[in-house]
Amino acid sequence: MNEVPITAIPIEQVERAVGPKMFEQFQASTADTRRRLGRSTVWHINTTAQGGGVAEMLVSLLAYARGLDMDMRWLVIDGDPGFFDLTKRIHNNLHGHSGDGGELGDEEHKHYEMTLAGNIKNLLKVIRPRDIVVCHDPQTAGLVPALAEHWAKVVWRCHIGPDKFNDSVNRAWMFLAKYLEQAQRYVFTRTAFIPPQLDESKCVIIPPSIDPLSCKNQPMAADVVEAILGKTGIIEGGLGGGDPVFTRENGSVGRVERCADMIHLGRAPRFDRPLIVQVSRWDNLKDPIGVMRGFGQYLAGEEASLILAGPNVSAVADDPEGLQVLADVEAAWRNLPHDVRKHVHLACLPMTDREENAAIVNALQRHATIVVQKSLQEGFGLTVTEAMWKSKPMVATAVGGIQDQIESGVHGLLIDDPTDLHAFGDALKRFLHDPEFAKKAGEAARARVEKEFLFTRHLCQYLEVFDDMDPNPHVQVA
Ligand code: UDP
């Protein structure tokens, strides 16, 4: 088990991030709850400090909370490969997909509980009975009973779910439900994800959010975008003159030094070539192969290239499928006709320095002509929010939380059937051929994120949940 170090972000930066009006509202609506939180520590527990949306959000939310004098902390628990294979199976099942098709029976319960028992010993050394604990996703559900019996107030936060309940979803919930009874609250991203196995009266809906000033989303001048993408080897050519720099979370200047690991024919796309970009973990539910095929079948004659970018595969601790998915994507890429393949580029982004990685993603999203998120299922899709914030026209699938972000035709274009490559190709062409429409959709997208998906709203909602939980009768809070 590790505690992830958090650098507090000073309160003045909240105002810079969201503007004076939202800051004022935030201050007013959280003043009492912050005071009532008093000396309680809020612990967030998950299984990875980088890669994926949960880690992305915790970094910012906790840094701002610390700057507001709240003692919020982040623990990452350990597991062996068998544990992560199992929890990825549950993850896929909760999204309605069979995943690796493996069992969720007695043996799996045993392995799951044994792994978590090792972590619980360490957790109970640092978590005090008056503390609040937010356990994230299926990997941590099995911690709930021990934490509740330790008199901590436990919230279980589920970031994923299906559009339709099926046998896979139900068996995953059957596996998890027995661990969750003692949680005081369940937080879901959207109402449709709430399963019949849980007590609905304990459920709260909190959509995710982004931080406009994080390395991932901070403003970036065009020459810096170009310098970062040139330095990493993702893009070639351009005007030159910028430095590959960004502002780190502690306010110091960061510099992109590392190269992306590129798989392509010949050279990187030129800076002036229109670019379609999807940034995602290497995960079948993000459908990277479908993106490539759609591009190959319907965009081959267009003046555009495609970049599929994802993390360096060894870096995401709780995602054991990344290596295999990347190998499958590469094999599918090798099978593309030569004329298509020369316009499709696979980029594995360096993950050694999380903030450097975020700056590279920032530059790539800003440089994209169109950003794509062709997920077969999605919890929320922070990559969508990030691109919308950068005023990008989005082509995405109408699945999970993406539907809560984009109204098709207004903030982007949605594909109703995520496997419909024809519709996918048409949507891309619509934006490529109509830059005015693309610009308008991008502007509407940005305005929507500004209104609904910034971290201040998210933090406020968390505080309301904490404030609303029953006081613990067994603990005297000073
Ligand atoms: N991400 C990243 N580097 C990568 C790939 C993804 O920083 O190489 C980030 C991405 O920008 C986003 C998060 O990982 O912030 C993915 O969150 P999302 O909700 O889209 O999907 P998840 O991975 O949680 O399923």
Structure summarized in a few sentences:
The protein has helices spanning 11-18, 20-37, 53-67, 81-94, 106-126, 138-141, 144-149, 167-180, 222-232, 288-298, 322-334, 338-341, 354-367, 382-389, 402-405, 421-433, 435-452, 455-468, and strands at residues 2-3, 42-46, 72-76, 132-136, 153-158, 185-188, 203-205, 245-247, 253-255, 261-263, 275-279, 305-311, 344-349, 370-373, 394-397, 413-415.
Describe what you observe in this structure.
This protein is α/β, with parallel strands linked by helices and 478 residues long. It has two domains: 222 residues, 3-Layer(aba) Sandwich (Rossmann fold); 231 residues, Glycogen Phosphorylase B (Rossmann fold, 3-Layer(aba) Sandwich), CATH 3.40.50.2000. Helix content is 44%, strand content 14%. The chain is built from 18 helices and 16 strands. It has a seven-stranded mixed sheet. Strands 10-13-12-11-14-15-16 form a seven-stranded mixed sheet, with helices on both faces. Strands 8-9 form a two-stranded antiparallel ribbon. β2, α3 and β3 form a beta-alpha-beta unit. The longest helix has 21 residues. It starts with a strand and ends in a 10-residue tail after the last helix. The mean pLDDT is 95. Uridine-5'-diphosphate (UDP) binds next to α3, β12, α13 and α14.
Helix/strand layout:
Layout: E1 2-3, H1 11-18, H2 20-37, E2 42-46, H3 53-67, E3 72-76, H4 81-94, H5 106-126, E4 132-136, H6 138-141, H7 144-149, E5 153-158, H8 167-180, E6 185-188, E7 203-205, H9 222-232, E8 245-247, E9 253-255, E10 261-263, E11 275-279, H10 288-298, E12 305-311, H11 322-334, H12 338-341, E13 344-349, H13 354-367, E14 370-373, H14 382-389, E15 394-397, H15 402-405, E16 413-415, H16 421-433, H17 435-452, H18 455-468
Parallel strand pairs: 2-3, 2-4, 4-5, 5-6, 6-7, 11-12, 11-14, 12-13, 14-15, 15-16
Antiparallel strand pairs: 1-3, 8-9, 10-13
Helix pairs in contact: 1-2, 2-18, 3-18, 4-5, 4-8, 9-13, 10-16, 14-17, 16-17
Bound molecules: uridine-5'-diphosphate.
